[in-house]
Amino acid sequence: MITLTAPLWVGILIGFIIGAAAEAWGIGNPETLIRLAKWEDRLFVDCILLGVAIATPVMYGLYAAGVGFHWSPKALYLIGVGLGGLLFGVGLAISGYFPGSTWMALGEGRRDAIYAIFGGLAGAAAWTILFQTPAGQWLVSTLNFGSQVIGATHPAGKEYLIPWGGLTSLDLFGISLLYAGILFVIAYFMPRYKGGQHSCLRSALSKESLTDFEKGKRLDTAMYLTYGGLPYGEKSIAKKLNEYWAVESNVTKFYMISIGGIVGLTVVAEMFMHQIFGESTTYSWMAGYIFLPDFKYSQIVFKGIGWEPFSDIGTLLGSFFAATFLTRRFTAFRKNIPLSWQKRFGNNEGIRALGSFGGTAIMMFGARMANGCASGHILSGLLQMSLSGWEFLIAVVVGMLVTARIVYGEG
Q1: How are beta strands 152-154 and 144-149 bridged, if at all?
Q2: In the prediction, which pLDDT does 246 show?
Q3: What would the pLDDT profile of 230-267 be if each residue is shown by its tens digit?
Q4: Would you list the DSSP string of 101-136?
Q5: How far, in Å, CA of 135 to CA of 389, rounded?
Q6: Cβ neighbours for 278, distance < 8 A, ≥ 6 positions apart
Q7: Stretch among 15-19, 31-35, 191-195, 247-251 having the lowest mean pLDDT
Q8: What span, in angstroms and rounded, lies between the C-alpha atoms of 210 and 384?
Q9: Which of 296, 143, 326, 322 is nearest to 236 (CA)?
Q10: Which domain holds residue 147?
Q11: Is residue 85 included in any domain, yes or no?
């Protein structure tokens, strides 16, 4: 089997690519994820589904051909993963952040990202304390079916899959093609905007014109993404990236869908180099060293940590590069409160700081309870066809939709 183990510093390069690409999506801006929680803008869902649909058959095809990967589907312990996903969704809707996007926001120069990072440390520390109690052990051990992907089991600590019931690695590749086809269909037909008709994929591949409503929503999106950022000219790259729908350019026609593919294939490359793409583990690693070095969960994290801290550094640097030189969204840590938050709670920065800190703490507590986040469970997990990844995603969606309805109203 063909294998490669990369040095830890390569994580900086991997994180840089993902951070720059996701910043171009707008994921570093908390308003983007708050609008996702309100189900007003489903860009993140469309792009993740597309990236997974592109990358999954590539990975399973290479595996069937004899290429080794660092398989890392999370264990399917139903209660802990489900409850953790619900809490993750609650915290995401309140704060507008998930673990990786806090570093992207910091790279964009967003002041409330500082409060979010401290909130993430608090949430990670809280789970570290709970983990070694009877309640914590019950959450991770009850109804635990181990690491399962569609069609196979992943033995703990091993670099291979055990196919179910006589299936082969070639059969798993066939399953991945069907899986990818289903995700492509969803990504194609799920409209990006609530009340719209087109996904990013459909608007790029079809000859159908955007409706006036969709053009207005995209203009509004460009305005909030660039609010408080650096100026850019009419013929600049930033103009094309921020208003790609409104410019005559074949380069930017496939802008969003190409980014989805880049992110998905980058995760495949990371797994080939025998590392894992995850963001929330860094918070437990930091909380453990700073506050709780002797706790059982900290010791587990210390032993199992890979290049996650390096990839988080790369994520920050990649976002800073994109926000400064490409999209020009760098806000230089000026006051910049998400519009949805302002409409509900006003322009008070102290209240926003509490929401950013508290929401991220809840989100991170849920992530560590479920042993994964938007990176480890949703992106990496769905790419591996992980059953726990799907449970986590469904729980996150339920948690964020209910919370956004309560917190922000009907928008």
Answers
A1: antiparallel
A2: 61
A3: 999 988 989 888 887 665 445 556 776 788 888 899 99
A4: HHHHHHHTT-THHHHHHHHHHHHHHHHHHHHTSHHH
A5: 23
A6: 308, 372, 373, 375, 376, 380
A7: 247-251
A8: 34
A9: 326
A10: 10-44+68-166+206-408
A11: yes
